[in-house]
Structure formats: C-alpha cells, structure tokens
Specification:
4 helices, mainly alpha, 0% strand
C-alpha cells in the first residue's frame, strides 16, 4: 500500500512540474523586449532570437541585442 501512495504522490509531483514548466516566463527585461520589438525582423526570427538569449545574463543579452540593432540599422541604409 505504501508503494501505491508513493506512486500517486510522484504522479502529482510530476503533474505540478509539468504545469510549472509549461508556463511562459518573462526572462527578458522590459527594456530588452522593447529593443527586440523595434528590430525589423520576422516573428520566426524573433522567436529564434528569444530562445537563444532567454537564459543568458542580462549584460550578454544587452550585448547581443545591441549587435543585432547595429546590423539591422546597417541593412536599412
């Protein structure tokens, strides 16, 4: 009987974990999001960039976005 209770508890924990990780979390500051949204890029490119920089430290995110902004401005000229 003990193993059945443990299995049920493990199932509940798994469900909670799945729910937690299925949520979207804001991992970019508002400033970083605004800078990204100002870039003239497709939604697909934006999603790809977000996936790549989401868990970088903020200073690395800033460097990456600034580089993208500079490249984006050069392409507009």
């Amino acid at each position: 009987m003990n193993s059945v209770n443990n299995d049920n508890e493990d199932f509940e924990k798994l469900k909670v974990i799945k729910t937690y990780f299925s949520k979207y979390f804001s991992v970019l500051s508002e400033e970083m999001r605004e800078k990204l949204l100002k870039l003239k890029i497709t939604k697909e490119d934006l999603k790809c960039i977000l996936k790549r920089i989401a868990f970088l430290p903020e200073d690395k995110q800033k460097m990456f976005i600034e580089e993208l902004s500079m490249d984006n401005e050069e392409n507009d000229i």
